[in-house]
Amino acid sequence: xxxxxxxxxxxxxxxxxxxxxxxxxxxxxxxxxxxxxxxxxxxxxxxxxxxxxxxxxxxxxxxxxxxxxxxxxxxxxxxxxxxxxxxxxxxxxxxxxxxxxxxxxxxxxxxxxxxxxxxxxxxxxxxxxxxxxxxxxxxxxxxxxxxxxxxxxxxxxxxxxxxxxxxxxxxxxxxxxxxxxxxxxxxxxxxxxxxxxxxxxxxxxxxxxxxxxxxxxxxxxxxxxxxxxxxxxxxxxxxxxxxxxxxxxxxxxxxxxxxxxxxxxxxxxxxxxxxxxxxxxxxxxxxxxxxxxxxxxxxxxxxxxxxxxxxxxxxxxxxxxxxxxxxxxxxxxxxxxxxxxxxxxxxxxxxxxxxxxxxxxxxxxxxxxxxxxxxxxxxxxxxxxxxxxxxxxxxxxxxxxxxxxxxxxx
Length: 410
Fold this sequence. Notes:
The chain contains 17 helices and 5 strands. The protein is mainly alpha-helical. The protein has one domain (86-402): SGNH hydrolase (Rossmann fold), CATH 3.40.50. A 5-stranded parallel beta sheet has the order 2-1-3-4-5, with helices on both faces.
C-alpha cells in the first residue's frame, strides 16, 4: 500500500509561489518541508491580513484641539506683546538717560555725587562746546583753590559739538534733573553762533540722544530734527544698541566707529581729557592746527550771528536767573594765529553783540581769550590737558571774584 501524497495541480502564486518555486517538481534538492508550507498555504487561501491604519496622535487624541487652541493663544499673545515690548523699550531708553545720552548721563551722575560730597559749597556749572569740555578741568581748581568754605564748586556740563542751542538744552536738562547751581557759566564763541546750512546745529545734533523732555526745545529751534527723533523711536534697539554695547564692552565695536569718544574718558568732575601735546612740541601743535585750518576757514568765511543763537543765549540766561542763579559769559582762550583768522566783520560784530548782551542782561563777561600761553593750546582753540589745568585754576579764582556771594549751596 502506497503512502498518500498531496497533489498540486498548479504552481502557487504570490508569497507561497515564491517560497515553493525553488522546490517545484519534487526533487529532493528542492523539497519543501510541509510544516513550513502549511502556514503559507493558509495565508494564501485566507488572503493578506487586513491593513492596520495608523492615525496621528493629534487627530485621534482628545487633547488635539487643546494643542491647537494653545498655539492660537501663543500666536495672539506674541502679536499683542510685540508692540507692548516696543513701547516699553522706547519708554526705558527715554528714561534711562545714561544709555540714551551717556555724555550727559555720566556727567549728571558725577554731578550728583560731587554735590553730595561738597554740600556746603556754591555750585558753579560750566556749559558749552568741546572747548569747555576739554578746557574746564575742575579737579585742577580743587588742587589750587584757597580751601575756603565758599570756594565755588566747579563742574563741567559741556556738550561736544554743541552750540548755543544745545547749550540751552543742557541747561534745561540740568534744572529738570534737579541741579541747583548758584552760578551758571555760558560759553560765548562766535564761530558757533552761525546757524545756516552745514554749520547749523541741526546738522550736528544726534537725534537719538534726545528724550521726550527735549521736544519743546527741538520743536522751537530745529523742527526738522523732531522727525529724526521719531524715527529713532521706531527701532529703539537699532538706535541705541551701539551706545549700549560701547558701555558694556567697547571691544565689541570697531574702534573707529565707537560712539564713546565724547564720554568714555570723562573724569569725576565732568572734564573730558583732550589732546595732549607737550608745550615744547611745536611740530605736533602745528599738525593739529593745520588739521583744523580748512574746516574753520569755511566756518569763519561769511559767518554771521544768527537770531536763533542770540535767542538761545538770552533764554539760557533767563532760565538760570529765574531759578536764582548768577550768570556769566565765558570766552575761552584762542591763539593769536586763530584770532587773526576771524574776518574783520565777524570780529567787530561779535564784540558788539557780546557787549550788548552783557549790558542788556546785566551779565558779566569773563574774557579769557588771551589768558594762556599759546603753547598750552593744542590746535589753536582747544586747550591741551596741561593748558586746561592752568586755565581752570585761573578760572576758578575769576568765578570766585566775579560772584563773591553767589547764593546757597546746591
